[in-house]
Amino acid sequence: MISLHNVSFEYPGRIQALEGIDLELREGERVALIGPNGAGKSTLLHLMAALDFAKEGEVTVAGRTVERRGAAEARKKVGFLFQDPDDQVFMPSVYEDVAFGPLNMGLAEEEVRRRVDAALKAVGAEHLAKRVPQNLSLGEKKRVAMAGLLSMSPPVLLLDEPTANLDPQGRRDLVNVLSGLPQTMVIATHDLTVAFELADRAIVLKRKVLFDGTFRELLKRPEVLKEANLELPSFSRLMMLYKQHLNADFEPPLTVEEAFELLKAQR
Amino acid sequence: MTMEKNADRYARDSWLSSFEPRVKLLCFLSLAVVIAFLTGTDVLLFALTFVLALAGLSRVPPRHLARGYALAFPFIFVASLTMLFTSGPGNALAMGMRISASVLLLLVLVSSTPFMDVLWALRWFRLPSVLSDMIMFTYRFIFVMLDESGRMRLARASRGFHGGRSLLDREAFKVISNSIGMIFLRSYRRADRVYLALLSRGYDGKVRALGGHRPRARDAGMGLAFVIIGALSLSQQMGWYLW
């Protein structure tokens, strides 16, 4: 679905953001892009979304090479959730905002309304339809921004720090929405709890790809976690200590539920 | 509690919001133009009474309208004061009444009409899209900027800044200038991100919006009422009709 071959990118002032990135994302795959601040996560998402263009190498989305010319077509294939929903939700009402993308796709008004209703329902925001964006909470704004993407039905979703600054309930609501979606998904995040829950594959980025594999494999690579300034969720650290204490051999858990099952099994 | 920050927060509860936005915009703006031509205090009193009646019918809380009027009052006062010294008390009173009636009329319009409907009507009347889009973005992001400036004010206060003792306090002036510069810089960066977000949703230089308003019989009734009021005011002004 998305492939990057030997991609490098630098910002003006010779600031190298990405170097020699080779990646292949299959259809329906859910990938967590993790790494410290300034690792190039947002830049990589911008390249995949045809919002920036690689200086070297090639980015392909749904079989089409991403270039400045024809970028508008490439953007139809990907939905991009920005970190700050105030950058994204800009129309004076929620309904109008969710309709913005489908209207730009040239769809008939009836189809636009059908898509807006379906997208608002998918994120549980039907009751916000007539609200004014500036009066919404951050969690509500994120869900509205998500509805704005879903109304365009893109096959790929690129999510930049989707749970950043959300309170626990807002984070839970958004995770529930995301986990029910069928699209190919790339989630740039620091939040490993969310990454464990939503993604099947982890890509650790620090200008280059430091690791590409499953989370269980990642947990066995403490040097990668250290290099990328990542901290495991509390329950994972607890279970690693418990494992050392018991001198037992079990796979590190990725969710609280898995940790609970392991604890029960150890009794 | 989330504070409602939009100027049209009472629009949906207003009796006037049920009228077709194009008809309403045309009626209100035409009456504002008519009022601008009125000079007699008696006919201005008639127009002002009609505007106040509209304000009452709109069900927009008087305090909300009064707050908007208070912002315009210094300008009305200066204009009337100038007339007092140059053309006498009668003209000063007429000036005050004329501007007050127009300001109140427009306040009733924007307070009783959802903002998106006003924009939709402006677009229908062929307002250039660059202007209507600019109005829309300004309306949306002014609150984001106000929030940012509010956070910066708190950050200044938390580190002991209390503002200057006078307008000539250079240190205070420097701090506030830096803050304003920072707001501009942040706005510039935000504008960049907003533009990228627009591109990612298929923006091609034109903001499209859903339509969906049709004039009904009651809109014709409102149009007729405004035409009658406008005609009566003008005929009195021209001396064609005596009360």
Draw up the topology in text.
The complex is a heterodimer of chains A (267) and B (243).
Chain A: E1 2-11, E2 15-25, E3 30-34, H1 41-48, E4 56-61, E5 64-65, H2 71-75, E6 78-81, H3 85-88, H4 94-104, H5 109-122, H6 138-150, E7 156-160, H7 168-179, E8 184-189, H8 192-198, E9 201-206, E10 208-213, H9 215-219, H10 222-227, H11 234-246, H12 256-266
Parallel strand pairs in A: 3-8, 3-9, 6-7, 7-8
Antiparallel strand pairs in A: 1-2, 1-4, 4-5, 9-10
Helix pairs in contact in A: 4-5, 4-6, 5-6, 6-7
Chain B: H1 21-37, H2 41-58, H3 62-87, H4 89-111, H5 115-124, H6 129-158, H7 170-200, H8 217-238
Number of helices of chain B: 8
Q: What's the helical proportion of residues of chain A?
A: 40-55%
User: What about the largest sheet of chain A?
Assistant: 6 strands, mixed
Overall mean pLDDT score of chain A? 87
User: How do the strands of the widest beta sheet of chain A line up side by side?
Assistant: 6-7-8-3-9-10
- Total DSSP helices of chain A: 12
Describe what you observe in this structure.
- Chain A is α/β, with parallel strands linked by helices.
- Chain A has a domain of 36 residues.
- Chain A is built from 12 helices and 10 strands.
- In chain A, the strands form 2 sheets. Chain A has a 6-stranded mixed beta sheet, sandwiched between helices.
- The longest helix of chain A is centred in the middle third of the chain and has 14 residues.
- The model of chain A has no long low-confidence stretch (mean pLDDT 87).
- Chain B is mainly α.
- Chain B has 2 domains: 135 residues, no CATH class; 73 residues, no CATH class.
- Chain B has 8 helices and no strands.
- Chain B is globular, with a radius of gyration of 22 Å.
- The N and C termini of chain B lie far apart (52 Å).
- The mean pLDDT of chain B is 85.
- Chains A and B meet through helix 2, strand 6, helix 3, helix 4 and helix 5 of A and helix 5, helix 6 and helix 7 of B.
